[in-house]
Amino acid sequence: MRISHLRTRLCRVVVAAAVLIAAAVSAQEGHPLAGTWYGDYTTGKQATDITVIMKWDGKSITGSINPGPNSKPLTSVVMDITPGKPAPQGQQSTSGTPPVFKVRFDVDGITFDGTLKNPVAGNRQLTGTWKRGNQSGTFHIRRV
Questions:
Q1: What does the DSSP assignment read for the chain?
Q2: Which one of 10, 40, 54, 59 is most buried, counting C-beta atoms within 10 A?
Q3: C-alpha torsion sign, points 142, 66, 99, 42
Q4: pLDDT digits (tens, 9 = 90+) for 25-71
Q5: Dihedral of alpha carbons 86, 61, 20, 119, sign
Q6: What is this structure's pTM?
Q7: 142, 127 in Cβ contact below 8 A?
């Protein structure tokens, strides 16, 4: 009888652990912009490394650029989604138009304006242009 109670208790612990692990794994995806992004931005032919950390609190996106003693907070993050169009019935799914995710974030007087590629995949990329006063260039970051 005692062994039966131990098995029941062990089974409950295993099930609870499995539920907690599943919840933690699914919570890691979250918002398409949440996470750590790494890449570079260019000025002419010179590329400069950049790390961007974005967080989603359920209402807004916050974060910082180049974490560490010289980090700068993101002052504004906006994501606009233009809905796609499904393929006509009976057509191949590739004949539809996917949604377009436009993203703009500002930090320390620099505006980054880009397009999010693969918004629901593990290999998300944000590519576009940046501008600060009369300086401008391109940037490319990917979520790590």
A1: -HHHHHHHHHHHHHHHHHHHHHHHHHHTT-STT-EEEEEEEEETTEEEEEEEEEEE-SS-EEEEES-STT-EE--EEEEEEE--BPPPTTS-GGGSB--EEEEEEEETTEEEEEEEESTTSTT-EEEEEEEETTEEEEEEEEE-
A2: 54
A3: negative
A4: 444 457 899 999 999 999 888 999 999 999 999 899 999 999 889 89
A5: positive
A6: 0.74
A7: no
